[in-house]
Amino acid sequence: MIDQLVTTNVQQLIAEKQWMTLRELVADWPAPEIADLLNELGKVERVVFFRILPRKRANEVFVYLSLDEQNQLLKDLTDEETRQLLADLSPDDRTMLLEELPGRVSQRLLNLLSPEDLTEARQLLGYPEDSVGRLMTPNYVAVQRDWTLAAALTHIRTRARESETINVIYVVDKDWRLLDALELRRFIFGEPDATVASIMDDTFIAISAFADQEEAVRMMQRYDLDVLPVVDSDNVLVGIITADDVLDVAQEEATEDFHRTAAVAPLNVSYSDIGVPQLYRKRIGWLLALVFMNIFSGAAIAAFEETIAAAVALVFFLPLLIDSSGNAGSQSATLMVRALAVGDVRVGDWGKLLGRELAVATLLGVSMSIAVAVVGIFRAGPEVAMVVSLTMMLVVLAGSLIGMSLPFIFSKLKLDPATASAPLITSLADISGVLIYFSLATWLLGVG
Amino acid sequence: MIDQLVTTNVQQLIAEKQWMTLRELVADWPAPEIADLLNELGKVERVVFFRILPRKRANEVFVYLSLDEQNQLLKDLTDEETRQLLADLSPDDRTMLLEELPGRVSQRLLNLLSPEDLTEARQLLGYPEDSVGRLMTPNYVAVQRDWTLAAALTHIRTRARESETINVIYVVDKDWRLLDALELRRFIFGEPDATVASIMDDTFIAISAFADQEEAVRMMQRYDLDVLPVVDSDNVLVGIITADDVLDVAQEEATEDFHRTAAVAPLNVSYSDIGVPQLYRKRIGWLLALVFMNIFSGAAIAAFEETIAAAVALVFFLPLLIDSSGNAGSQSATLMVRALAVGDVRVGDWGKLLGRELAVATLLGVSMSIAVAVVGIFRAGPEVAMVVSLTMMLVVLAGSLIGMSLPFIFSKLKLDPATASAPLITSLADISGVLIYFSLATWLLGVG
Questions:
Q1: Taking the model in full, what pTM does it have?
Q2: Do B338 and A284 touch (CB under 8 A)?
Q3: Which of A276, A360, B7, B80 gets the most CB atoms within 10 Å of its CB?
């Protein structure tokens, strides 16, 4: 039995949310004592207390609980009241206090829950948003390596109804660590008396529950798989994800990137369902930010007011030049954003791709210079045409370089590479375009 | 036996590529006679002749051939020499002459081929580019409804190795028409003596081989399926498509839409593999087109040269106003392009969505008017601020309406809704922005 005083002390620390003190207090206690203490606590206290235990310790404590106590704890873990309490923790505290649950606890917890409760449970298990852990289901069939195929098939039969797939059967050890992934046909067409070990090939592809969901998309595409086993950091099998779930993710990620590229915050709801106030909120942020961004283009123009006043005809070519720069930049940025998203290009590849981008941008710049020179000669004579043509060459180069670099810069800043890329590039292209154009004009035409 | 003269006549018509005459000639011939004639012809002639037969007739003729002759014909169908001849037909002739092959012929043909030959065979079968027919594989297991489960399992066992999935087993009738799609577990866990008919539920979801691949993406997402059976226009099962294939399609379609939105022609190859000349070609087309488009903005500005000369300070706000219009328009267009692509919105929904877009655009316009009015007062006094503020309101509305409408207009014109949407909208926003801004300025400030 645990000292009543100790229990009271622990309860007080929980009430005062003195998490760190509590954690230090129990750091050296033996697991059986913590297990006893857990049973003395009320429902909410018990969950909080269990949740702040270090991972290894939590596993030991869990083993010391009776089966009934284990189930009760797991049910309490997902109870609304305790969930709320845990959710109220600040994100920093959460990361510091709440570790990943031990693999065995996760597996038991996930199997215990109704599908409706799964969404919240995945959150409680500590897997970050957009991680594979948030997407997986516990509805798979696992067998042990020393079973006979007949015994395995009997087990598969009992689990078949609630399993997402029985195309693939997983082999785990006593601690539920993943050993192999075998196709059902091997069990059906093998000798019933043979052991599972005899049909194992020891080759399988698994994904970490902490991996980004986009990584799962890439793995399924690369290896042409319809289902992937998900393991935690101890290589314990905690779930599976299927291609149809991953398909949803791929579509959602693409949609978010599309919206981000055009400076719309991710909607989190289908376009046809969203209301006017939400749609306004998703769009206004970047639009306002870009207004202030564009004041710089205005300021650049204001700096050349005299040049403009002296040669108003120059303004004719302004939209054409800055838009061309922005268009070339958007092309480069979009190519890069998508190549990064599908894993075709990595964040470290910027230098490697720079040469090719320069070559393409030069070709584009030359072609467009020629096109605009023809327009320039007819419209404003050879002198202005030369300025416009030279400007076009330079702004297409500048736009392309800004466009290809921005997604990499965003990645380095831990932002999504797609973030507002198209309008930002348009604004940056405007500023650089105005400066290049009127500087050249002032210099070459001797105006201003 | 067929008359030697008839054979010579047919051979001559083939040599002269008189396809229509040939087709009319044999229209009324009985199937056994055509079968005999086929055997008289050389390899290339035989294939061409078979390929131009009307669908129903081709099926009858095929049945009259011996098994050897059938296999020979099918192999010849995919032979390089005959493939080339058929490929050389003009697209119009192809559509007119080459009908869909009968379901039984398709199934046999696909099963006969190596995976490498499948790509070309799908083309020969007459399924259009980007159709489900081009994506399917013939590697599935089909059983008959009057078989026992034991017999079905024996068949499944023999076909298991080369099947893409055995999670789902298909039930077909004697003509290979699809009757049901059943999960393998039903076969394993049913009574061995029971018939397949006894475990059928007569509910299944299938997709036409002629459907667009994007439709398959939507169906798999909506019904959470990992595999879809593919049927031809006679409801004959011709193949299956799996979620991992569809995942590739979804990613490719999204990539193409991304590129199109930024005015890059679809690459058809991964970004990291493309060379400088191809990349140049994919980008220059729209860039040049947009240069000429932007001449209109220049012309609009030129029309207001006097206004500008009289109040050069107005130019300060020009990039800000036209970019804001373009940004709002790009947001609207991107939201719509993606909603159309994932099937969230249909082409007929324009009118229904117009009201919401107007409401959101008005809110955005008011917010941005206020923001720009503040800048305007400090920079250029209350009069110019009023003009700028009012212009902002109008150009955000105009940009949003153009942006939301353009994808629908492209759809009506049978173009991809994503086509160059962002830069086109920027250009259109420029033109309308310049006209609105300087018209208001001329009118309200009395300049020009």
A1: 0.72
A2: no
A3: A360
